[in-house]
Write a structure and sequence with these properties.
Layout: H1 6-9, H2 15-23, E1 25-29, E2 41-45, H3 70-76, E3 80-81, H4 84-108, H5 117-126, E4 150-156, H6 176-188, E5 191-197, H7 206-210, E6 214-217, H8 225-233, E7 269-271, H9 280-285, E8 303-312, E9 315-324, E10 333-340, E11 350-356, E12 365-373, E13 379-381, E14 386-389, E15 392-401, E16 404-413, E17 417-421, E18 448-451, H10 478-484, E19 501-502, H11 505-510, E20 517-519, E21 530-533, E22 539-540, H12 547-550, H13 553-564, E23 571-573, H14 582-587, H15 591-607, E24 612-613, H16 637-651, E25 659-660, E26 662-665, E27 678-680, H17 683-690, H18 692-700, E28 705-708, E29 712-713, E30 716-717, H19 722-732, E31 738-740, H20 754-759, H21 770-781, H22 787-804
Parallel strand pairs: 2-3, 2-4, 4-5, 5-6, 7-27, 16-18, 20-24, 24-25, 26-28, 27-29, 28-31
Antiparallel strand pairs: 1-6, 8-9, 9-12, 10-11, 10-15, 13-14, 14-17, 15-16, 19-20, 21-22, 21-23, 29-30
Length: 806
């Protein structure tokens, strides 16, 4: 069995372990099966017990020193594991699976230029790391037949950048072997606990027939996940995570399951027929019961909640007294929703606030106060292009999940109040009908009605005009202006090996500009774990090809020798921290925790000379099959926006001169054909769902950069969408940071052209080769490229450099 890295596992307080503890969700706990007696012998099955996925694949992966598996965590905390020979068999099979995948990658990448970013990613996505380790269990897999009390079965799934998940057995559905093994364990053990090591929902119909005793969403819990789980299982800590996604009973309950991504055999066009009815807004509005509701999560203890509501001018004040009335210490999350009783074609209810308690001891109390702006009840009117607080009655409800709520009072608005006008983004009939909500709202006659004094409700202030200091580029030659509009992949950097982007180093040197270095990895900084040093302190690695993503020994060796001339130099190693995935962190519902994660990332950014962290991912999760679901926070824009703003504020705290980059802006809901797909979205859904999280994050956060997505929005690539970038971001929101493209998203066949991106609001194209740089300069000479727009873009880039390099 693999040697456990005890010093790594048992270091002092670990923030990544704490994040995992706060984020795992207890879904079923029949007859108080959990917590477990540490002295009880357990039998551990499932390949995920030893090959536990810490996160998803793609740019969100993080290179770590060691990731604690579920087996290692249980073993380290003293659990007696009855069947270690099974676990050794999994490990032996894992080694064979890795070799098999490496061979497949070698075949898939034959003939592909290793510098072709998207083709390499496509090859990786075709060969995911879902290693098939489970085999059918038999009586030979049972040990010590007299102590078959408890079995734990781990079901693992992996997904990531470049490909959506498949609606097949072994991916969304359980494989035949997994189903047979669950039945075998249920038949032969007194208790069965199932652990889901997955970054997105999967089919859970097995609980209908098997009646499992406990079900845990482990998620993708970062490098200390196995240890966190062990401390939850033994009762040392308590579950407090809540779902930020609704889990369907049947995936076909979702209307969009007929047309999402590849399911309608058309990955070129994605019509957002669900409109504003996404996630719990869909289930609640159409009275469809999911398997597990948004905001749901169990605890070992119980809480008594006593809530009240008062109106203070334009603020809704909700006070909740929480008392721990159970037998364990624990935390609770208070969720506040509103229901628009008089409005048709609005969701049944929407989240407007959440707050997590401290850890409450038995019989301890805490009062949580949530102050909510009345304007949070407003929605978008696409006929007039404004946000409006509509005349009507709004019920305010509070509880600990979207289906466990108590009504407090009704807020009445006596006339429409226009709050803010926005740039029109949709200019044509999109040619499809959205699903319509069932108007089953009803006024709760038992609730007191409070009328709002409209004199207290003020429109949102207009943002200051974004201005650029064009004096910063007065000495630039035209050709240099064009070249500076492209970022580069660092071949050799005085930052850290593995940074994935920078300004043009030669032009920075020529014009005495401090370069800016960017690193990927929404779960942490994704830097090279192996690199070479030069006499002047520069570092170099082959990872501007996605080597760390491919994990292919064959490709690594080739790139390593050709690019780094590694046979001449000493190899150095370096590791960064892998936190739980964004989806997991959001399940903590803890903004203070998210801020602390940002502070920790800031320290690593300083140590490794990284200026922009290309995180967090903020796209709204529309469907369980999304390949990058793990990398995004939620189906709810409030959760997404507040989590992103808190993380960004942690990164930039204490005048760190470090920043995040919100991405992928916007409507990047599928991975299949992500470079060319067209998201067709109506204006109300855009503002109430898909742009809202970004708006919250920009208004409350501190990001100095935004990355556009690969896809088109209503026929226009987001990196070239004037209304989206210059209208919405610059004018409506007053965003004055840098707007960058995603990597390699212009000037290829059927993509936006570089000059179109710059003309319409993009500041820097990531990344540029000689050909597309020449194209940009040629289009400047032809007057296709607006020189004023180009100057603004370069001024924006230099301003950011001056800001971050103070």
């Amino acid at each position: 069995m693999r040697k456990i890295a005890n010093n790594f596992i048992n270091n002092e307080f670990s923030l990544t372990k704490e994040a995992a503890i706060e984020s795992m969700v207890l879904l079923i706990n029949k007859d108080n099966t959990l917590p477990l007696d540490i002295n009880k012998t357990i039998s551990l099955y499932g390949g995920g017990s030893v090959n536990t996925f810490k996160g998803g694949t793609g740019s969100g992966d993080v290179n770590v020193f060691h990731s604690v598996s579920i087996y290692e965590g249980l073993k380290f905390k003293g659990f007696k594991i009855n069947n270690e020979f099974n676990l050794n068999n999994y490990l032996n099979k894992l080694n064979g699976e890795i070799k098999r995948r490496d061979k497949k990658l070698k075949e898939l990448t034959k003939g592909i230029n290793p510098f072709n970013y998207e083709e390499m990613y496509t090859a990786i996505a075709i060969a995911p790391e879902n290693y098939i380790l489970d085999t059918k269990l038999t009586k030979n897999d049972l040990v010590n037949l007299d102590i078959l009390d408890l079995a734990i079965y781990v079901i693992s799934r992996q997904a990531g950048e470049g490909k959506d998940r498949q609606l097949i057995k072994g991916d969304y559905y359980l494989s035949d072997v997994e189903m047979e093994n669950l039945q075998f364990l249920k038949d032969n053990f007194k208790k069965l606990i199932v652990i889901l090591n997955t970054g997105s929902p999967l089919d859970t119909t097995f609980i209908n027939s098997l009646d499992v005793d406990a079900l845990i969403l482990y998620g993708q819990a970062g490098e200390k996940g196995g240890l966190a789980l062990a401390e939850l299982l033994n009762g040392e800590r308590n579950f407090s995570g809540k779902l930020t996604l609704s889990w369907p009973k049947d995936i076909n309950d979702l209307k969009i399951s007929k047309c999402y991504s590849y399911l309608d055999n058309d990955v070129n066009k994605e019509q957002y027929i669900d409109g504003v009815y996404v996630g719990y807004r869909y289930y609640d509005s159409f009275n469809i019961k999911p398997r597990f509701h948004f905001g749901f999560g169990l605890s070992y203890t119980s809480f008594e909640l006593k809530s009240s509501l008062n109106l203070d001018k334009d603020k809704i004040i909700v006070k909740t007294l929480i008392r721990n009335i159970g037998s364990y210490n624990g935390k609770e999350v208070i969720e506040v929703y509103y229901r628009p009783f008089d409005l048709i074609d609005e969701p049944f209810q929407s989240l407007i606030s959440f707050k997590k308690s401290k850890e409450l001891k038995i019989n301890e109390e805490e009062e949580l106060i949530q102050e909510i702006d009345v304007r949070e009840l407003a929605t978008y009117d696409e006929s007039k292009n404004f946000i409006v607080l509509k005349k009507g009655k709004y019920g305010i409800y509070v509880g600990n999940s979207s289906n466990n709520l108590t009504g407090l009072k009704i807020i009445e608005i006596e006339k429409d109040v226009i709050l803010k006008t926005y740039t029109k983004i949709v200019h044509k009939d999109l040619g499809f009908e959205e699903i319509k909500g069932i108007n089953h709202q009803h006024e709760d006659n038992l609730l007191e009605i409070i009328k709002v004094n409209l004199n207290y409700i003020k429109p949102y202030l207009n943002k200051d005009e974004v201005k650029f200091d064009n004096n910063l580029v007065k000495d630039f030659m035209d050709v240099d202006l064009c070249n500076f509009a492209f970022g580069t992949l660092p071949f050799r950097s005085n930052s850290s090996a593995g940074v994935c982007g920078e300004y043009d180093p030669d032009l920075c040197k020529k014009y005495h500009i401090d370069n800016i270095y960017m690193a990927d990895g929404p779960a942490g900084l994704r830097l090279s774990k192996e690199y070479y040093k030069y006499h002047n302190g520069d570092t170099k690695s082959a990872t501007y090809i996605p080597i760390d993503l491919i994990k292919s020994r064959f490709i690594y060796k080739i790139a390593d020798k050709i690019i780094c001339l590694s046979f001449f130099k000493k190899k150095h190693k370096r590791f960064t921290t892998c936190f739980p995935s964004a989806l997991m962190v959001a399940q903590s519902f803890d903004l203070d925790l998210t801020y602390k994660i940002g502070e920790h990332i800031q320290k690593e950014m300083k140590e490794y000379k990284v200026d922009i962290w290309l995180a967090p991912g903020m796209n709204i999760v529309r469907h369980p099959l999304g390949g990058r679901t793990f990398e995004y926070y939620s189906e709810d824009p409030l959760v997404s926006g507040l989590m992103a703003s808190s993380l960004s504020n942690g990164v930039s705290s204490n005048n760190s001169h470090k920043t995040v980059c919100f991405k992928h802006f916007c409507c990047n809901s599928q991975e299949d054909n992500r470079m060319k797909s067209d998201s067709i979205v109506k204006e109300k859904a855009l503002h109430d769902i898909y742009l809202k999280g970004f708006e919250i994050a920009i208004n409350k956060g501190s990001s100095r950069a935004i990355m556009t997505s690969y896809n088109k929005l209503n026929g226009v690539y987001t990196n070239s969408n004037k209304d989206l970038l210059l209208g919405y971001l610059r004018h409506d929101l007053g965003f004055n940071g840098v707007i960058m493209t995603d990597w390699n998203s212009v000037d290829d066949k059927d993509q936006a052209q570089g000059y179109e991106a710059i003309n319409n609001g993009t500041d820097i194209i990531m990344v540029g080769n000689k050909k597309i740089r020449n194209n940009l300069y040629a289009n400047l000479l032809r007057n296709k490229l607006d020189k004023k727009a180009l100057i603004n873009s370069i001024s924006s880039l230099i301003s950011l450099s001056k800001e971050l390099k103070k």
